[in-house]
Write a structure and sequence with these properties.
Residues 157-323 form the Lactate/malate dehydrogenase C-terminal domain. Helices cover 43% and strands 18% of the residues. It has helices at 15-26, 47-59, 74-77, 98-119, 133-143, 157-171, 207-210, 212-224, 226-234, 240-255, 304-325, and strands spanning 5-10, 36-41, 65-71, 83-86, 125-128, 152-154, 182-184, 192-194, 199-200, 203-204, 261-266, 278-287, 290-293. The strands form four sheets. Strands 3-2-1-4-5-6 form a six-stranded parallel beta sheet. Bound molecules: nicotinamide-adenine-dinucleotide.
Length: 331
């Protein structure tokens, strides 16, 4: 058995955590030889509910879980942290503007970034899930300046899984044979699901799946609005599929994968995206929490307006978030 890995999960009393914790505890993410110490952070008002989650984890009698620690203290949560899975975020309330949501969450991710900077291991790997995930990750990366930005990612795998599964259903094949379906940009309804490089084990996609009307009228809006469709049907947001995507993201990032996967990562200028912006790119994962943006999947002319739109939305979010967080002189 390896040394225990200290995994901090925030928003641990929430619905994604409830679906995710069994994946972590069973070894489905970090491997069945990897013991873990779970540190569960949630706000003070959620501590009673969190205690119930801990009881259920205990009742699971998971051999790999060596310690479970609950807290509402942000500094305590990140002490010696190896992996941080940041699900906790301020929820969007009825009538709330996206900008207000952005600013509420920017303050949360600033505080968590500072705590990670001070208390986590320098080798920590961070996955941001709480929305608006891309900009929360950018804020966190700024305030966790001791941590290499390549160690901080956000989740777009749910969008990639949705798009891949949609195509597999259309073709009546297993999602495992559909490759190179990408979702670019922001985890919002401006994201650009892109089939230009998609293939199956039988070769390129048939023409009817590449037809511009089909893409414009059906495929793209269905994927962009999938989260809202789940909320409409379930009266709750995606949790099972989100937890599954978090597990996929972490497992691939740590174990490596042959496939190209979507991750929201800090732009190094690739594809003309401004440096520092957290953008969903196609990535190769090499294992042990390393990845590289794959440079050779340019979008076509059809995709360009979609990319411009999602890119501009992220630039605006960045400006709004940092205008309130940073002194004017440093902007
Ligand atoms: N990136 C993605 O693909 C994706 C997909 C689905 C959901 N999400 C987002 O993930 C987040 C979690 O979703 P959920 O369904 O579990 O929500 P939820 O409301 O069920 O749980 C959120 C939890 O976070 C806690 N929380 C709030 N503020 C906190 C803080 N400052 N510190 C620690 N914990 C805090 C809440 O008390 C709650 O227990 C939401 O922001 C949601 O929009 C992202």
């Amino acid at each position: 058995m390896d040394m225990p890995m200290r995994v901090t999960v925030t928003g641990a009393a929430g619905q994604i955590a409830y679906c995710l914790l069994p994946f972590l505890a069973r070894g489905d993410v970090f491997g069945t030889d990897q013991p873990i110490e779970l540190v569960l952070l949630d706000i003070e008002e959620a501590q009673t509910s969190l205690r119930g989650v801990v009881m259920e984890l205990e009742d699971g009698a998971y051999p790999l879980v060596s310690v479970i620690h609950c807290t509402s203290n942000v500094s305590e949560a990140f002490v010696d942290c190896d992996v941080a899975v940041l699900l906790g975020a301020f929820p969007r309330k009825l009538g709330m503007e996206r900008r207000d949501l952005l600013l509420q969450n920017a303050a949360i991710f600033k505080e968590q970034g500072e705590a990670i900077h001070k208390y986590a291991k320098r080798s920590v790997r961070v996955l941001v899930v709480g929305n608006p995930a891309n900009t929360n990750a950018a804020v966190l990366a700024h305030f966790a300046s001791a941590i290499d930005k390549k160690q901080i990612t956000a989740l777009s795998r749910l969008d990639q899984n949705r798009a891949t599964s949609f195509i597999a259903n259309e073709l009546k094949v297993s999602p495992s044979v559909v490759k190179n379906v990408f979702v670019w940009g922001n985890h919002s309804n401006t994201q650009y699901p892109d089939l230009f490089h998609a293939v199956t084990n039988r070769g390129p996609l048939p023409d009817w799946l590449r037809d511009e009307n089909f893409l414009r009228e059906k495929f793209i809006p269905i994927i962009q609005e999938r989260g809202a469709a789940v909320i409409k049907a379930r009266k709750l947001s995606s949790a099972m599929s989100a937890a599954n995507a978090v597990a996929d993201h972490l497992r691939d990032w740590f174990a490596g994968t042959q496939d190209v996967v979507n991750m929201v990562v800090c732009s190094d200028g690739s594809y003309g995206i401004r440096k520092g912006i957290f953008f969903s790119f196609p990535c190769y994962c090499y294992g042990n929490g390393t990845f590289e943006i794959v440079p050779h999947f340019p979008w076509d002319a059809f995709g360009d307006p979609y990319i411009q739109r999602t890119k501009q939305e992220l630039y605006k979010e960045w400006d709004q978030a940092f205008a309130t967080l940073l002194p004017k002189s440093s902007l």
